[in-house]
TrEMBL record, chain A:
Family: Belongs to the ABC transporter superfamily.
SUPFAM superfamilies: P-loop containing nucleoside triphosphate hydrolases
Keyword DNA-binding assigned: no
Single GO BP term: peptide transport
Pfam families, per database record: ABC_tran (PF00005), oligo_HPY (PF08352)
Organism: Leuconostoc fallax
Name this protein carries in UniProt: ABC transporter domain-containing protein
UniProtKB/TrEMBL annotation, chain B:
Classification via PROSITE patterns: ABC_TM1
Keywords: Cell membrane, Membrane, Transmembrane, Transmembrane helix, Transport
Location(s), subcellular: Cell membrane
Species per Swiss-Prot/TrEMBL record: Leuconostoc fallax
Protein name: ABC transmembrane type-1 domain-containing protein
GO cellular component, one term: plasma membrane
């Protein structure tokens, strides 16, 4: 496997009248070719800001601090000029937006909207770009595409529009595809179709996907690896199985417990009590401590470093320190751990 | 499309009929008479009234007017004796319409550019300066601007002629500018607020994510979308401009229709009042029809039915 993107020590602040909102506080992760990395976390945890930063699309009041690095093909994207960013956007890194009802231009033919990035990045003529757009429309499963290439967005359903948005993102065959809650605005059956489409496309193109969601339910079928974000930080990351069946961070436990499942079940749904901290004044120590029933005294003093669980699995919680008392997680998590032990037993 | 337009034209004729009727009866309740020269003897007055059919009952006058109007005869002016209203308007309307059309084109184009520039530079110096300019343009009456233009360009720098009509194009420049300022300012403000909204829309974000430059985004996506609501503004604006401006026509001694309409009211020149009202109403409705058609052309979501 080869690495296509490496994010190191990313810090993003927003200057507001109330002060600096510390939206991203030291985020690091890497992305391999052909893999899907899911970023999960509650609303406001910084998922969208992280990915907008990768596209150079942050709001004007954003401030990215000096030491941050976004390494893509040997260069730090943060050093790019606007004109250089334009060569990356939609070409090497593309994005699928959340709401297909509002993300297409209502006054432009859909075929043209798909052709646009091709004319821009591959310098295709209008005819050639439209021809390619037709192929892309067929590729994303738009029925009778040739008849609909001159349609306008209002003539299409949400699911079809999201396929068009995906076709736009795929047009220039990007190495990284960012999907920020691509199915939240769609109903459940359409959701499943769109997710399957993304999976199928990935198999053909081998692009890397960053998949953002606050719905852990869709992560299981989609992702290879998961990063859990809380209050502008990644608090735990690992493979899908590691996060689902061997979670270590109490915040991850909370997320898993608040997710409806059919398999490892008992105990019912539980939302995480409390609210995320104010990012104008992030708390000292572990930002999750105030909502964490397993919090230790040190959590309020000092920020936990990442503890290694396996080669691929890390979690930032003092519970993993060897001096920490052994705690018993909630029963559903115990069940998940039991399942994990079974999996491991089978492997051995 | 053809069906839609014929339907709208029918509606236009019906509305026109209502306007004619309302105006006709409203004129009857205006105090005074058209013939108020103190030298006129009662005999002469009676004769005049008879000649113009004013001795008949109102409903008969009304029916006569309608019947004549249908054949294209809008009567003879009381003020300018022996001049038919059709001729008066026919001579003067094209002058006002040309001036108005020039001002409309200049004003709207300037407004589009300034509005877009303002929106793209939201809250910085350029936006602030354009904001001040457009506020001035809206609040300073066009005749004051006209006088300033006459002073600067006509006398101080002597670049353009300051009055007259029909001899050269340069005569039209100053009145066009004076008349264009207010529509330019109104369009600037409107385009600015529309474009700010469009520029923060999801589809503009997506266009950015495609790798388009700001300029490409404005030209390919933002203009078209901000234009749609602007069109509804331009219809009435056009009707207003094409039917002449009294003050500007006075300042620049332009033989337009605006002046005539205003003098026709105190002198109770009924046929001229009626004629110009019809022209105004028709112009407004035709302009709105045109902008509706244009809106349907620009906005695929709008269907003409
Ligand atoms: N332009 C901005 N100015 C100030 N604060 C901002 C700005 N953009 C984002 N933020 C703040 O940054 C934090 C992270 O926001 P972000 O949009 O990344 O959340 P998210 O994880 O994507 O949430 P959601 O699930 O609701 O989409 C939030 O606290 C948000 O209020
Ligand atoms: Mg978000």
């Amino acid at each position: 496997m080869s690495e296509v993107l490496k994010v190191e020590n990313l810090h993003v602040d927003f200057n507001t009248y109330a002060g600096k909102v510390k939206a991203i506080r030291d985020v690091s992760f890497s992305l391999e070719k052909g893999e899907t990395l899911a970023i999960v976390g509650e609303s406001g945890s910084g998922k969208s800001v992280t990915t907008k930063t990768l596209m150079g699309l942050n709001a004007k009041n954003a401030e990215i601090s000096e030491g941050s690095q976004l390494l893509f093909k040997g260069q730090n994207l943060l050093d790019l000029k606007e004109s250089e960013w334009q060569k990356i956007r939609g070409n090497e890194i593309a994005m699928i937006f959340q709401d297909p009802m509002t993300s297409l231009d209502p006054t432009m033919k859909i075929g043209m909207q798909i052709a646009e990035p091709l004319m821009k990045h591959q310098k295709l003529s209008k005819e050639a770009a439209l021809k390619r757009a037709l192929a892309l429309m067929e590729g994303v499963g738009i029925p009778a595409a040739a008849e609909h290439i001159d349609d306008y967005p209002h003539q299409w359903s949400g699911g079809m529009r999201q396929r068009a948005v995906i076709a736009i993102a795929l047009a220039a065959d990007p190495e990284i595809l960012i999907a920020d809650e691509p199915t939240t605005a769609l109903d459940v059956t359409i959701q499943a179709q769109i997710l399957k489409l993304m999976k199928d496309i990935q198999q053909q193109t081998d692009n890397a996907i960053i998949f953002i969601t606050h719905d852990l339910g869709v992560v299981a079928g989609m992702a290879d690896r998961v990063a859990v974000m809380y209050a502008g930080k990644i608090v735990e990351y690992g493979t899908v199985d590691e996060i689902f069946f061997n979670p270590q961070h109490p915040y991850t436990w909370g997320l898993l417990n608040s997710m409806p499942t059919t398999d490892t079940q008992s105990g019912g749904l539980q939302a995480i009590p409390g609210t995320p901290p104010d990012l104008l004044e992030p708390p000292k120590g572990d930002a999750f401590a105030a909502r964490n029933q397993y919090a230790l005294a040190i959590d309020r003093q000092e920020e936990p470093p990442f503890f290694k669980v396996s080669e691929t699995h890390y979690a930032a919680t003092w519970l993993l320190d060897e001096r920490a008392p052994k705690v018993t997680p909630p029963i559903p998590i115990q069940n998940r751990w039991a399942h994990w032990a079974q999996l491991k037993g089978n492997e051995a | 499309m053809v069906k839609y337009i014929s339907k709208r034209l029918l509606l236009l004729v019906f509305t026109l009929f209502l306007v004619v009727t309302a105006t006709f009866f409203l004129m009857q309740v205006m105090p005074g008479t058209p013939f108020n020269n103190p030298k006129l003897t009662p005999d002469m007055l009676a004769q005049l009234n008879k000649a113009y059919g004013l001795d008949l009952p109102v409903w008969q006058q009304y029916l006569h007017y309608l019947a004549n109007a249908f054949t294209g005869d809008f009567g003879t002016s009381f003020q300018y004796q022996n001049q038919s209203v059709g001729m008066l308007i026919g001579q003067r309307l094209p002058v006002s319409a040309q001036l108005g059309a020039q001002a409309l084109v200049v004003g709207v184009i300037a407004g589009l550019f300034m509005g877009a520039a303002s929106a793209r530079n939201k809250n910085n110096k350029i936006d602030g300066t354009l904001g001040i300019i457009s506020t001035l343009g809206i609040s300073v009456p066009s005749f004051i601007l006209g006088i300033i233009l006459v002073y600067l360009f006509g006398f101080k720098w002597a670049l353009f002629p300051v009055s007259g009509w029909g001899d050269s194009f340069s005569e039209t420049i100053l009145p066009t500018l004076a008349l264009a300022v207010s529509p330019a300012a109104v369009t600037t403000r409107f385009v600015r607020s529309e474009m700010i909204e469009v520029l923060s829309s999801d589809y503009v974000q997506l266009a950015k994510a495609k790798g388009l430059s700001d300029k490409e985004i404005v030209n390919k996506h933002a203009y078209r979308n901000s234009m749609i609501p602007v069109l509804t503004l331009i219809g009435p604006m056009a009707a207003n401009l094409l039917t002449g401006s009294v003050l500007i026509e006075n300042i620049f001694s332009i033989p337009g229709i605006g002046q005539q309409f205003v003098t026709s009211i105190p002198s109770k020149d009924f046929p001229v009042i009626m004629g110009t009202t019809i022209v105004y109403a028709m112009m407004l409705m035709v302009m709105i029809l045109i902008t509706d058609i244009l809106t349907a052309v620009v906005d695929p979501r709008v269907r003409l039915r």
